[in-house]
Amino acid sequence: MPEPTQQLSPPATAAPDVQKRRLRWAQGILLLFHTTGFLGLAFSQDPSFYLQFVPLNLLLTLGLLLAFQPRRTAAFWGFCVVVALVGFLVEVVGIRTGLLFGQYEYGATLGPKWLDVPLLIGVNWLMLTYSAGVLARYLPLPDFLRALVAALLMVGLDICIEPVAVRYDFWRWQYDVIPLLNFKGWFAVSLILQVYFNRVEFDKRNALVPFVYLVQLLFFFALGMLL
């Protein structure tokens, strides 16, 4: 007969199973949003209906990434604020001077603007910096080489994004030509942010990151192929 104070403990696998279910749900939601967006933009007679959900998709993706970040410490939140602000300010400088990325201007798709730059552009920089940085942590490399790899991952995704962004009024380039300076500027800014990512002390694991990067890469690559 068991002792009165003895309690039945749940199976050791309960917590991992819950995490797996949460991960599958998050992946399913992201896949649904990106698949619907892809089909709507690629085959709909009225892509503007689907474009209005781009800001929501950005916020949803970032929200799910944050939900899967272990131990969201003050250092982590500080990193998020700094990267989002730097990303926004870099775009303001880019728009005003043309020195960082070339001559371009933002369209209406990314939502409300301040100083001619969408407020959500900082969210985009944060999401890409964080995702690429976490992915690079899988490699057994020194921090600076990881930063280089992560910066290349960000530029690689930008290469896939550019044709789609121009087609659907995310932004517009002078003379409709994407300059090489854009990718050089992206790499330079990305590398600085990745060095910062490696220096800030927080838990740099996230089970959702590989799926987010892959689904975005496939989304923009496939849409670009159909243009």
From TrEMBL:
<feature type="transmembrane region" description="Helical">
    <location>
        <begin position="49"/>
        <end position="68"/>
    </location>
</feature>
<feature type="transmembrane region" description="Helical">
    <location>
        <begin position="208"/>
        <end position="226"/>
    </location>
</feature>
<protein>
    <submittedName>
        <fullName>Carotenoid biosynthesis protein</fullName>
    </submittedName>
</protein>
<feature type="transmembrane region" description="Helical">
    <location>
        <begin position="25"/>
        <end position="43"/>
    </location>
</feature>
<dbReference type="Pfam" id="PF04240">
    <property type="entry name" value="Caroten_synth"/>
</dbReference>
<feature type="transmembrane region" description="Helical">
    <location>
        <begin position="115"/>
        <end position="135"/>
    </location>
</feature>
<feature type="transmembrane region" description="Helical">
    <location>
        <begin position="75"/>
        <end position="95"/>
    </location>
</feature>
<feature type="transmembrane region" description="Helical">
    <location>
        <begin position="147"/>
        <end position="165"/>
    </location>
</feature>
<keyword id="KW-0472">Membrane</keyword>
<feature type="transmembrane region" description="Helical">
    <location>
        <begin position="177"/>
        <end position="196"/>
    </location>
</feature>
<keyword id="KW-1133">Transmembrane helix</keyword>
<keyword id="KW-0812">Transmembrane</keyword>
<dbReference type="InterPro" id="IPR007354">
    <property type="entry name" value="CruF-like"/>
</dbReference>
